[in-house]
Design a protein that fits this description.
Chain A has 268 residues and is mostly helical. Helices cover 82% and strands 0% of the residues of chain A. The longest helix of chain A is centred in the middle third of the chain and has 30 residues. Chain B is an alpha/beta fold and 249 residues long. Chain B starts with a strand and ends in an 11-residue tail after the last helix. The chains are: A mainly alpha (268), B alpha/beta (249). Chains A and B meet through helix 6, helix 7 and helix 10 of A and helix 2 and helix 3 of B.
Chain lengths: 268, 249
């Protein structure tokens, strides 16, 4: 057996990574086509506040992050649809709020520490058995919900007005999507890190769109790209001793560049 | 008793204190082919959005297929083909088939999968709109005319009894336009689908439709197109009676 598979923490990282690699583009594709890319980063910053709160209260940091980011996700969607704040500014307010909240809580706690660094940039050694159970359980829940609501989510994403005109409660589907994103982002935080989660949701999808032949195939290709990125990234992270979030995202970007070159040649 | 597809009574709509539609009343019988004309900002798109339930009227009421609009649940009976100017579709990685299927979503219902009968209805809608051979093409790779027919197929996939089309021929070349109008005639005459059709093309109104609604904040005329000469319609709809109103989106 190769050395890398002899450590429990690596097996946990691979298992959690594989689940996340599937969830991230499944949610990401709906974010990308709706031009919600900023939302992922916003929710990630907010979940940092949750992590900081969890650390300060000496409880489970991911639990804190889940509560805070789901509440914030609902708040963002309500503020956005109320049109009280212009366009994406509603999202931006939460983006800064999340970061500021995290900084304030950390100052209270006495500054940055190694634990937080792992949540910022991801680390293969952070995934505890408890994290893995949480990722597996909530990951399955996310995939089941998206599978069940796929046709409605597709319809609302492509033409929200028509979906409403047909009697669909588009606002409810938007809310489901944002809440699921918030959960997925929290789950991805230990491995990919809060600052790079957005990339795992967006880059494989944008790469797959270069080969797009249909929505379903774009989704399928982006899952494959995401899986390759996460698994290669984890291996690189182990052997080179680099933060896994960085290696995963650099691998994903490398695949994007390659795809761009290939399809660029075809375009000519 | 005659059943009406759309009954509008004393309808008004204001947006930020600007009156967009004022005291509008008309009826469209089932199976009727109606053209809706009027200047930009005259309230046409707003009226359509109110009929579709996307905007709530400030006052007045609407009945759809005899039911008060707020309680009307069979929304997919009212097919809608939006303006063809949207840029959004160009990058959206979906095929014509996937887009047409989405038009049946509401009819299939929440948590239910497409059945064989649904798939047949979807294929028939594509066949009727002449886009079956385009079904595996990406929506962004289609021409304006092809995309428009895909959107009509999407509306037909829900088995509608009425079609509302908002300037559907914009961005479509002349030859496709002719085809398109013939196609609407067939839908109306053979399938008995009620059509409400927004356009700026007065020639089309005179030639194609059975009834005209001319809207500029309020209803300026309503009747058979031959009752109005083209010039008179232009005068009424676009001439001296144009009022400064703000369009509410």
């Amino acid at each position: 057996m190769p050395e890398i598979l002899q450590f429990d923490f690596m097996l946990r990282a691979f298992a959690a990574g594989a689940i996340l690699a599937v969830i991230a583009p499944v949610i990401g594709i709906f974010m990308v086509v709706r031009r919600y890319s900023l939302m992922a980063d916003t929710l990630a910053h907010i979940s940092l506040t949750g992590v900081a709160a969890g650390m300060l209260a000496k409880t489970y940091p991911l639990g804190g992050a889940l509560v805070v980011s789901v509440i914030a996700a609902i708040g963002i969607e309500k503020l956005r649809t109320s049109r009280a704040v212009f366009g994406e500014s509603a999202v931006a307010l939460f983006f800064w709020g999340g970061m500021a909240g995290a900084v304030v809580l950390l100052s209270v706690a006495g500054g940055f520490n190694v634990g937080l660094f792992a949540y910022l940039f991801g680390s293969i050694s952070t995934v505890t058995p408890r994290d893995l159970y949480l990722i597996a359980a909530l990951g399955m829940l996310i995939l089941t919900i998206i599978f069940l609501l796929y046709k409605e989510l597709f319809f609302v994403s492509f033409d929200e007005d028509l979906a409403r005109a047909n009697g669909l409660r588009a606002e409810n589907f938007n809310l489901v999507m944002v809440v699921l994103s918030a959960v997925a982002i929290v789950l991805a935080m230990p491995i990919v890190g809060a600052l790079l989660i957005g990339a795992l949701m967006v880059v494989p999808v944008v790469t797959a769109m270069q080969f797009a032949v249909s929505f379903k195939q774009t989704l399928f290709i982006s899952i494959v790209i995401s899986l390759i990125s996460v698994l290669c990234g984890l291996v690189l992270s182990y052997y080179l001793d680099i933060a896994s979030g960085g290696t995963i995202v650099i691998t994903a970007l490398g695949i994007f560049a390659l795809a761009w070159l290939i399809t660029g040649r075809k375009r000519q | 008793m005659k059943t009406y597809c759309i009954e509008v009574e004393n309808l008004s709509f204001s947006f930020d204190k600007n009156i967009v539609i004022e005291d509008l009343s008309f009826k469209i019988a089932q199976g009727q082919y109606t053209g809706l004309i009027g200047p930009n900002g005259g309230g046409k798109t707003t009226l359509i959005k109110i009929i579709l339930g996307l905007l709530m009227p400030t006052s007045g009421s609407i009945r759809l297929f005899g039911e008060p609009a707020p309680e009307f649940r069979r929304r997919s009976l009212m097919g809608y083909v939006p303006q063809n100017a949207s840029q959004a579709e160009f990058y959206f990685p979906a095929t014509a088939n996937e887009i047409v299927r989405s038009g049946r979503t509401a009819r299939v219902g929440l948590l239910r999968r497409f059945t064989k009968a649904d798939n047949l209805a979807i294929e028939k809608a594509m066949e009727t709109a002449g886009v079956l051979d385009l079904k595996d093409r990406l929506i962004g790779k289609l021409s304006g005319g092809q995309r428009q027919r895909v959107f009509i197929a999407r509306a037909l996939a829900g088995d509608p009894q009425a079609l509302i089309l908002d300037e559907p021929a914009v961005g479509v070349d002349a030859a496709s336009k002719e085809h398109f109008y013939e196609f609407l005639q067939v839908l109306n005459k053979h399938s008995g689908i009620t059509i409400l059709f927004v356009t700026h093309d007065l020639g089309v109104i005179a030639r194609e439709v059975e009834s005209v609604l001319c809207l500029n904040r309020t209803l300026l005329c309503h009747g058979k197109p031959d009752a109005f000469s083209g010039e008179r319609m232009i005068e009424m709809g676009y001439g001296g009676m144009v009022a400064p109103v703000v369009h509410g989106h």
